[in-house]
Every structure is written in C-alpha cells, then in structure tokens.
Design goal:
Distance between the termini: 10 Å
Helix content: 25-40%
Shape: elongated
CATH architecture of the largest domain: Alpha-beta prism
Radius of gyration: 22 Å
Bound molecules: uridine-diphosphate-N-acetylglucosamine
Strand content: 25-35%
Largest sheet: 4 strands, mixed
C-alpha cells in the first residue's frame, strides 16, 4: 500500500487543471445501458472508481473502449449478456447501484446487489426502490440482492415525491423514466449539476426531459434512445478542494476549467473567510491577500447549498483560521472521521453529533495520519500542506478513487508532496 508524504511550506501559486466530474461520469456511464448504440464520453477522469464501474458494465455485456489515454470512453451496450450486478463490485462502489434504473428500463428486469453501509453512514436505498415501485416495478430483496422486474417488460410513468433530496435516487428514477410508458413527474428532485448533466446527456440521446436543475423534473417516456457524444462537466468537488489551497497555504491558484456556477455557495464561504475569488477566461482564480482566513460557519445541504463533499476540506481550512467555526453536517450521519486525525496534527476540533466546532490554531503540526474515506483523505493532505514538518497520509487508495493526478497537480503549484510505497 502507498502513502503520501507532505511537507508543509509557504504559499502555493500557479495553475491546476480540473478534471471531468467523477460522480457525473459514473451516472453517464450507466446511461449507456439505455441504448444499443454507442455512447461516447469525453473529459472522462482517470480514476479507479471509473475503472470499477467499467468492469461492472463489461460484466453486463457492455463493450467499453478507452481512447486518448482514457480521456475518451466509448460504451456500446448493443446486446446485454447479464442482468446481474454482483456484490463484489457494488460493495466497492455504491454508485454502481445506479445501473438498476437503466437496466430495468431497457430489459424489464435487473438483479443488483445491495451496496451495504459505508464509512460515512448507513446510506440506504429505500428511496431508489420506492421510485421504481411507483413506476410499476415489483421489487424483492433476496440474499442481499434487489430483484426487480417490470410487469409486461416496461415501466410506467408515475408521480414520485421524494420525502427528502437524494441525488442517487433522483438519478435512478430519471434514467428509468426515459424509457417508461407515459409521463413521470419527480418531485423534490436533486438539483445537483451532476443530475443536470445526466439529464442533458439523456436528452441528447433522445429522451424528453423538462425541469432538470429545478426540484420538479418531468420525463415523457420514449420507445428508444440513441447514441451520442457528450463531454463530462468539470468536477466541482475537485475544483472546490483546490480552491481552498490559498486559504490554507497562502498564494494564488487558478483552477483551469473551473466555473463559479458549480460551486457558488462554497465560493461565497471562501469570500466570507477573506479570500478573493475571480472568474477568469480560463477558470476560477482564488487568492489570499491578508494573513489568516477568518472563521466562517458552514451547514451542508443539497445543491445549491454547501456540498457535504467539501465539508472535510473546509474543516482543514478552518483549523488554521482566525476564530472559531461551527461546521454542521446534515446529509450523512458519520462524516467527521477526519476530525480525530486533524486533532493528531494539533487541530482543536470538538464533535458533538452533527456539529463540529473548530477553533483555529494558526499552524498545524505534521503527523502520521490515516484516511478513512475519499474526502477525508484529501482534507488530511490539505492540512499537511499547512503544517509544520512532515505528514504521512496512509491508505492512499481512497484518493485514487476520486482525485486524478493529485500529487502532480499539487506539485505543479509548488507543493512539497510525494507518493511513497510502504513496502520500501
Ligand atoms: C451522491 C454523491 C456523493 C455525495 C452525495 C450528497 C455520487 C456517486 N455520490 O451520493 O458523493 O456526497 O450525493 O451530495 O454521486 N438516503 C436514504 N435513502 C435512499 C437514498 C439516500 O435514506 O434511498 C439518504 C442517505 O443515506 C443520505 C442522504 O439520503 O443521508 C443523501 O444521500 P444521496 O443524495 O442519495 O447521496 P448519494 O446519491 O448516495
């Protein structure tokens, strides 16, 4: 297993290219199951999660070709050879549960493993199943698998009202509805840019969708979809992550391809903390002019609110801020596992239920730490960049799931960071 060694230093300045969005790309890949024509995706991030889903799709009979060093992916689901998404893959990647909607819509049946819990919480799938049942699917749970069938081979349009916002459930319902008979209305739908990009791609494939980006999405089912070529949007979480660098280390970083509309709530918090955020012709530039950032309170919420996937990074920044910040996590019940690791680096964080109170200490101290999930891992690296001395972050495989070329990108702005093999 590899670790990442970070030595804290001075300001970081330069450019960081932002990759295609992982969470969007995963859902776009699943949409390939809806048509027998090829779906070509460009701006695909080269990440292990993408490889994991490609393996799952291949096990269903999808031909997957990666071109131009993996940045372009052609998925061709001419004929599916299996309806079963196996536990061995789904347990590694929860997003693979989102093959359920497309498989059921196209084939009239699907068997998909339940993903189980994960480090950040229980993460149920009841809303996914509720939506598909509303569309006429019969759903049974047997031996850890969801067995779903559409009577007569086709789902039916339905009214679906989610009790709270779920990105995954909205996207499973949306994809399933494209090929259903009749009209589906999804209320309290996710408004995340990922969901909007998925809807855009589905529309390019011939789906009839209105209202994506609002909380009511209407889908008029069609008989078939066709192939298209679609560029994945920039990764707003990677973007937000690198936007914290000037706050943590000082300096000026331009995130190439970054867009304010993808991270508006987050950018506003950075501005309140004293950072300068400027849209340029090439992306988003963030700079720190004063000494330390100011403490700001944050509460996570579905889009357009402050993203839960940027909470850990914000905590790393608040550890060095002037003042005391309260971070409130409302999406996942167990998403402060980075706090005890940050405390090992000298941070003053007190977690009580869904609230973390962070008292800024100015400078952290390097320490060996352990990553527990993707966003926690990057927060420890960010903290290490601001710390005195050396920080060793173990369990780097979490980072490989979601941050393309993280070491090279950070070195590009002057960070002292390297990947080392623990086996010598
Ligand atoms: C997606 C993102 C993830 C992000 C999250 C919230 C992908 C691959 N992942 O995850 O990075 O952190 O959105 O922005 O796109 N819930 C239920 N029942 C359900 C579904 C969800 O109770 O059937 C709960 C979850 O446990 C959680 C909350 O709803 O507490 C929100 O989860 P959801 O929006 O569904 O997150 P994901 O789609 O899994």
């Amino acid at each position: 297993m590899d670790s990442i060694l970070v030595r804290g230093g001075g300001p970081l300045s330069g450019e960081i290219p932002i990759s295609g969005a992982k969470n969007t790309c995963l859902k776009l890949m699943g949409a390939a199951l809806l048509t027998d024509e090829p779906l070509t995706l460009t701006n695909v991030p080269r990440l292990s999660d993408i490889g994991t889903l490609a393996t799952l799709l291949a096990s269903l009979g999808v031909e997957v070709a990666r071109l131009q060093e993996g940045v372009v992916m052609v998925l061709s689901a001419r004929q599916l050879t299996s309806h079963t998404a196996e536990y061995d893959i789904v347990r590694k990647l929860r997003a693979s549960f989102n093959v359920l909607g497309p498989l059921l819509a196209r084939e009239g049946r699907a068997i998909v493993s339940l993903p189980g819990g994960c480090a950040i919480g229980a993460r149920k799938v009841d809303l996914h199943l509720m939506a598909l049942e509303a569309m006429g699917a019969s759903v049974e749970l047997r031996e850890g698998y969801v067995h779903a069938t559409a009577p007569g081979g086709r789902l039916k349009g339905a009214e679906i009202a989610f009790p709270f916002v779920s990105v995954g459930a909205t996207e499973n319902a949306l994809t399933a509805a494209t090929l259903a008979e009749g009209t589906t209305v999804i209320r309290n739908a996710a408004r995340e840019p990922d969901t909007v990009d998925l809807a855009r791609c589905l529309s390019e494939m011939g789906a009839r969708i209105a209202g994506a980006g609002t909380s009511t999405i209407t889908v008029e089912g069609v008989d078939r979809l066709h192939g298209t070529t679609h560029a994945v949007i920039p990764d707003r979480i990677e973007l937000g992550t690198y936007m914290t660098l000037p706050g943590i280390c000082g300096g000026e970083v331009e995130c190439l391809g970054g867009r304010r509309d993808l991270v508006d709530a987050f950018a506003s918090k950075l501005e309140q903390a004293g950072l300068l955020v400027v849209e340029t012709s090439r992306g988003l530039k963030v700079a720190r002019d004063g000494e330390r950032v100011r403490a700001v309170d944050v509460k996570t919420a579905p889009f357009p609110g402050f993203p839960t996937d940027l909470q850990a990074q914000m905590m790393a920044m608040m550890c060095t801020a002037d003042g005391t910040a309260v971070l409130e996590e409302t999406i996942f019940e167990n998403r402060f596992m980075h706090a005890p690791e940050l405390i090992r680096m000298g941070a003053q964080v007190d977690v009580q239920g869904g609230h973390a109170t962070v008292r800024g200490v100015g400078r952290l101290k390097g320490a060996p730490v352990m990553a527990t999930d993707l966003r926690a891992s990057i927060s420890l690296i960010l903290a290490g960049l601001a710390a005195q001395g050396e920080t060793r972050v173990a369990r780097v495989y979490h980072l490989d799931r979601g941050y393309e070329q993280v070491v090279a990108k950070l070195r590009g702005v002057g960070a002292d960071i390297e990947r080392v093999s623990d086996n010598g």
